Amino acid sequence: MAIFTVLLSWLPQALLLVLCLFFVAFLGYCLYIKHLHLKYDHIPGPPRKSFLFGHSPIFLEVMKNDGVIHDKFHEWSETYGPVYRINILHYVIIGVTCPEATKEIMMSPKYPKDKFLYKRLFNIFGVRFLGNGLVTAQNHEQWYKQRRIMDPAFSSLYLRGLMGTFNERAEVLMDQLSEEAESNTVADMLSLFNCVALDIIAKVAFGVDLNLLKYSSPFPKAIETCLKGMIYYIRDATFEYFPQNWRFINEVREACRLLRTTGAQWINERKTAIQNGEVVPRDILTQIIKSAGQEESITKEDEEFMLDNFVTFFIAGQETTANTLAFCTMELGRHPDILEKVKKEVDDVIGMNREISYDDLGNLTYLSQVLKETLRIYPTAPGTSRDLPDDMVIDGIHIPGGVTCFLSSYSAGRMEKFFKDPLKFDPDRFHPDAPKPYYCYYPFALGPRSCLGINFAQMEAKVVMAKLIQRFDFTLVPGQSFNIRDTGTLRPMSGVPCTIRHRNIT
Q: So where does heme get bound (predicted)?
């Protein structure tokens, strides 16, 4: 009883001490934020909404209204110039649309991927997501080792050998569209493109037949859930602390676990085949297994590392290509004159052939221009970021080192000073004789950390679009929105619903 009395007498003092320590720590944190404001406020930028939270309330408001945060970055680029400042708590982010700085930062390995964003991609709500895979690895040596191992799966010779699979899976989509045409039903083009893109990456990268156009699968929904969760996890630091969000957070965690569990199963099956001396393709899955090294015993971290790259390629190989195809279809539907030019080229190059060859792709030059213009206005991966470890000068403004630089391909591609009448869909901007954009067009990033799958994605998109245009006429359903949905990647908000008809080719 006496001990209990003594403890009670000490409790108010202990509580007071904790409160004092908390106040001192909070005051110190506020002083540190003030120090950062003084250090970087010579850089132009929008007014902060809050001393403590900086510009993050603006981001939350955009998300609440189902807007596109990259439109806000574009607005700030136009208002404050090629270098502008963003504050979020004690983080300082520098938005950059200056081509010379873009060249310097993206073409050099001395500017690593930024710690804030890519650490947030390591896991989502406590479940490992992209980990230290090829996209998220910050250490240059670690990244370079992975890239060197993965390169053979994306060599020109290997990609040529994938044309059969590209054709085969695209034909399944054509069969589905034929059914839509004959039944006179509306086709959700984004959903169909998601299925065919995921079918292709599963087959050519992992040797698995999903047949998503015939059979239901949890994977498309899981990918969408992970990406949506990723956005909230990155942009809203308080999201997981509100009980009304917990159900969704559990759905995100389960979606992450599904992808990683699936990856573990497919990796183990391939490893067993290799151990049994079976002939296996030199695809992404084989290269992922090689990336764990040649050690006799593979550690738990090695296993997780393989799963990091599985999830990276599984999502990236499907999401960006499907969205590009959907945006391309949307713009062709809005511009019948451009569609007619593409039809003529497809008819001249492919004719009535069902099989599109690798050489055919090289002759579809106008279709290439259309796809490039699509990615200019709708870069499905709308930007990238790097850490600036040292001081540098950008457009005459001194940038103290230790900040993150955000390079927005979305903003650059929509700026009048780089592209005349930027919101006009004009594939002739990318005519072979037209001037090349100078470091203001980079939908696949630039430099050593540029997208490894750029040629893969372009080949796949060309095959699917060429077959679609060869076989069908499509008309956009009236009244649909042409707005963008921001899910980390960018996708058409309405899903591009179309009516499909068989072409009358004479």
A: 451
pLDDT digits 0-9 by tens, 318-332: 888 999 999 999 999
Known binding residue 451? Answer is: yes
pLDDT tens for each residue of 344-384: 999 999 988 889 999 999 999 999 999 999 999 999 888 88
Question: What mean pLDDT is predicted for residues 101-129?
Answer: 85
Whole-number Å distance between alpha carbons of 196 and 187: 14
Whether the Cβ atoms of residue 33 and residue 90 lie closer than 8 Å to each other: yes
- Residue 84, token pair as written in the block: 């502008």
Whether the CB-CB separation of 444 and 374 falls below 8 Å is answered with no
pLDDT score recorded for residue 412: 94
Pick one of 1.10.630.10, 3.40.50.280, 2.30.290.10, 3.40.190.10 as the CATH number of 39-502: 1.10.630.10
Q: Which residues contact 175 (CB under 8 A, 6 or more apart)?
A: 213
Where along the chain do its domains lie?
39-502
- C-alpha separations of 61 from 1, 58, 85, 86, 269 in Å: 55, 5, 19, 16, 46
CB-count exposure of residue 37 (10 Å: 0-12, 13-18, 19+): middle
User: Rounded to the nearest 5°, which phi and psi values hold at 494?
Assistant: -90, -10
**Dihedral sign, Cα of residue 319, residue 325, residue 330, residue 334:** positive
Cβ atoms of 181 and 500 within 8 Å: the answer is: yes
Counts for the chain of helices (H) and strands (E), in that order: 18, 13
CA distance 347 to 352: 7
Residues whose CB is less than 8 angstroms from the CB of residue 352 and which lie 6 or more positions away in sequence, other chains included: 505
Report d(CA 192, CA 474) in Å as an integer: 14
Q: Evaluate if residue 85 carries a pLDDT over 90.
A: yes
Token pair 């603006």 is at which residue?
A: 58
Q: Which amino acid is at 369?
A: Q
* Cβ(395)–Cβ(81) below 8 Å: yes
C-alpha span between 320 and 380 (Å, rounded): 6
The tokens for 444 are 């696949």
Contact predicate 175/211, CB 8 Å: no
Which stretches does DSSP call E strand in 246-320?
none
Say how far apart CA 243 and CA 155 lie, in whole Å: 48
Q: Compute CA distances 357 → 268, 336, 461, 463, 466, whole Å.
A: 34, 27, 14, 9, 11
User: How far is 13 from 7, CA to CA, in rounded Å?
Assistant: 10
